[in-house]
Amino acid sequence: MYQDTFEEEDLAAEIELVTSDSYHAEDPLDEEYVDDASIQQQVLLQQQQYATAGAQIPDGVKNFIGHFHRHILDNNVYELHSVYENSFNKLTEKYFPKSTWPEPEYIAPLPLTPFYPTTSDQVFLTLYRELYYRHIYSRLTPTIEHRFHSYENYCDLFNYILNSEGPVTLELPNQWLWDIIDEFIYQFQSFCNYRNRLKNKSDEEIALLRDNPQIWSCYSVLNVLYSLIQKSRITEQLLVSKHGGDMQEAAGEYGSRPLYKMLGYFSIVGLLRVHCLLGDYTLALKMMDNIELNKKALFARVTACHVTTFYYVGFAYMMMRRYADAIKAFSHILVFIQRTKQYHTRSYQYDQIAKKGDQMYALLAVCIALCPTRLDETIHTHLREKYGEQLSKMQKGEEGIPTFEDLFLYACPKFILPNGPNFEDPNAANLNSEPHIHHSKIFLNDVRHQITIPTLRSFLKLYTTMGIDKLAAFLELEPEELRTQLLVLKQKSRQTRWSSGTLLEGEYVPTSDLDFCLKQDMIHIAESKVGRRYADWFLRNIGKFQDIVAGLEQRN
Amino acid sequence: MRAAKEGRAVPNMYCDVTTGVRGGWRRATHHKSHASHDPTHPTHPTHPTHPTHPSMSSTMPSISPSAPAKTRPEVIQSLIDGVDRYNPDNVSILEEYLTAQCQNEDYDLMANLAILKLYQFNPHLTTDQVIFNILVKSLTAIPEPDFNLCLYLLTEQMVADEPIQKLTLLQQLLEEARYKNFWETYDSDELYKELTSEVRGFTSAIRKVIANVVNMTYQTISSDLLRSYLHLEGDAYKSLLASYGWSDADGVVTIPINKHNEAKTVVIRENIKFEQLTKVIGYSNEL
């Protein structure tokens, strides 16, 4: 899911300190199994308390939890899909728009099924908690306890999946599997940003952060994603699907189960995202080495994953100055969003997809300003509608810089610093900067190097030959300055562009319709023209004609 | 010192998931041969996530166009392809490889980024001189964006330090093609020479960067201008020209035509793909 509202949430968290006493360190349901009689009695007592609390849960919600539990036990993916996609969100709207779902401890003693308690109930509770915390993150303000416990819950979940004896039989809908990976990274990112804002944090909170550096640490998050990739042998599976071979053998006993396969696959996309958040763009694209960006790819099965993949691939390309590739990635997914709009409006994720789409239009505008390219017709119209004004501002030299900055900051991912601040040093908090400012500074410096190009381009387009002195006079520049600008234009009109192979590969080619060369003081200009396109027109009219003929035949 | 801090570098993981892999990372460096995963033998529960980093190196093509795989040692290749790249113990291998690059006038961006990645995760490992060398090296890769790709991995405070600010100025001058200015700046302060001293052949590598841009842009150029760009005189200048196959006659240097400096008008014609025609061919069946 795309939740980009966390910044406000985080700020709110700093203002309003909520101390939650809902968590009990010796929560009996978190323990393995307790034999000791006296403890057992305590457990019973506590369960009774929980049961009373549980009695206040609305019947609709109780029924839902019962259904949910049964489908998990039955591995009924089809029903789970509707429980997950529809019922949960409907009930959220109805009962919990501004409060948490019932505490996992309260729902545990509900008489859900006659099999209670079994080990699979732990799995059910873990999954329930996953939804419970995700709901808090998306609708409320997570406290530090929520953040810690959610992390522990993810550990429990991944532990169960990765470290059980043999592969687990659990099955979940693809959408949910994607959301698990997506939410895991989102909460990691949210935590990193939260950790870096020491202002307005109580001593207690700072102490908790200082004493638990392992919680949501970069290494542990990467560990989870890499472990899922290894366990599912997804790399081997992708290689086999590309080059042929025995899929069963490549997948192994874990990878042949959909749960592992999809989690492994989504973890690759997850790593693409994590590396982008850390500013490592080459490594981000390297993660995608074995995934081909075509419509048949697995990521296309889950729309949110499809959109995420292209957003981060496009963004990484943009930061590597491969604007032509970035434009291609953004256009592809924007056309897709456009065409499938009618289906998304019904989905609970529509808002997030629409927001991501808007951000990608902003990035597309930036890329187009830096590398003028012909776009798909519908995309072009939309881009003009949304960012027409910004597009023309970005062509205006130095005064366009703030526009570049605005668009970049609006559309960039929420970068993270991998390490927490130095808690010992009270001044460190001030030193700790916002990573997105750092990234935008470097990016804008790069833009500044080429800020004069649009003006120069527009002049060159008018001539086929031109003396340097004369053009310099038109532009009100020193001839020497014009020469350097021409050298810059030459370099910026060439990029590494993908043609085949992995995403990082590419050829160094011209990406501009305008080219020129210098013979001492004379500029020779050549413009590539796009010939008229006949095919589309003829094909459309052949289609129309065919319809008319068919219509006539029917009448006869 | 590194061993003492390892607890922080690979922290005591909070849950079993992570301890499993942490074990894996250590094992991977010492027992490489056991790393293959046999699906018929389920992994032992005490080492649940046995490392299986697939030996991808054999099937993977070269990544960075500026670093052909053939010059990259196999050790480095397998290191940067797998999860070993996160193991802080490996930083010295990569640093030695960087030293070799500096001495042998080689360049390998992917390997250098892997060093910066380790620094990013383990700030206590950071060695300033190594960062400087990486940045100096990346200046010689312009017009590739390597310098910025390195900066993105550093923190804002590091970038604000004077030496890196100085190198950023050099980058700016090169990116903006202010070559005369570049040489003036470079000669103006001893610090620049100090910063670039460990990178053998720095100035000639920069001349190559400049010559490359001239080669793409000019068909003929006045030799005075070219000399100022390249900051060379006399025999050194002549032999450099000869090495590129450029000829200097009557104060004008002629550069052979190549695909970047010819500037030909092209008409792009549409390509009709077979898929576009399938519908039309379908109609013909109905007739």
UniProtKB/TrEMBL annotation, chain A:
Keywords annotated in UniProt: Cytoplasm, Initiation factor, Membrane, Protein biosynthesis, Transmembrane, Transmembrane helix
InterPro entries, sorted: eIF3l (IPR019382), PCI_dom (IPR000717)
GO CC annotation: eukaryotic 43S preinitiation complex; eukaryotic 48S preinitiation complex; eukaryotic translation initiation factor 3 complex
Keyword Protein biosynthesis among UniProt keywords: yes
Domain PCI: 329-516
One Pfam family recorded for the sequence: Paf67
GO molecular function term, any single one: translation initiation factor activity
Record GO biological process: formation of cytoplasmic translation initiation complex
Keyword Membrane appears in the UniProt entry: yes
Bilayer-crossing regions: 263-285, 297-318
Protein localization: Cytoplasm
Description of how the protein assembles with itself and partners: Component of the eukaryotic translation initiation factor 3 (eIF-3) complex.
Family of this protein: Belongs to the eIF-3 subunit L family.
Function: Component of the eukaryotic translation initiation factor 3 (eIF-3) complex, which is involved in protein synthesis of a specialized repertoire of mRNAs and, together with other initiation factors, stimulates binding of mRNA and methionyl-tRNAi to the 40S ribosome. The eIF-3 complex specifically targets and initiates translation of a subset of mRNAs involved in cell proliferation.
Name the UniProt record assigns to this protein: Eukaryotic translation initiation factor 3 subunit L
From TrEMBL, chain B:
Entry's localization field: Cytoplasm
UniProt entry keywords in alphabetical sequence: Cytoplasm, Initiation factor, Protein biosynthesis
Membrane spanning residue stretches: none
UniProt-listed Pfam families: CSN8_PSD8_EIF3K
Composition-biased stretches (Low complexity): 52-68
Xref: Gene3D superfamilies: ARM repeat, domain 1 (1.25.40.250), Winged helix-like DNA-binding domain superfamily/Winged helix DNA-binding domain (1.10.10.10)
PCI domain boundaries: 107-271
Residue span of region Disordered: 26-71
GO BP annotations listed: formation of cytoplasmic translation initiation complex; regulation of translational initiation
Keyword Protein biosynthesis among UniProt keywords: yes
InterPro entries: ARM-type_fold, CSN8_PSD8_EIF3K, eIF3k, PCI_dom, Transl_init_fac_sub12_N_euk, WH-like_DNA-bd_sf, WH_DNA-bd_sf
A GO MF term: translation initiation factor activity
GO cellular component terms, semicolon-separated: eukaryotic 43S preinitiation complex; eukaryotic 48S preinitiation complex; eukaryotic translation initiation factor 3 complex
Coiled-coil boundaries: none
Record's keyword annotation contains Protein biosynthesis: yes
Family as reported in the entry's similarity comment: Belongs to the eIF-3 subunit K family.
Role played: Component of the eukaryotic translation initiation factor 3 (eIF-3) complex, which is involved in protein synthesis of a specialized repertoire of mRNAs and, together with other initiation factors, stimulates binding of mRNA and methionyl-tRNAi to the 40S ribosome. The eIF-3 complex specifically targets and initiates translation of a subset of mRNAs involved in cell proliferation.
Quaternary structure annotation from Swiss-Prot or TrEMBL: Component of the eukaryotic translation initiation factor 3 (eIF-3) complex.
Name of the featured protein: Eukaryotic translation initiation factor 3 subunit K
Classification of source organism: Eukaryota, Fungi, Fungi incertae sedis, Mucoromycota, Mucoromycotina
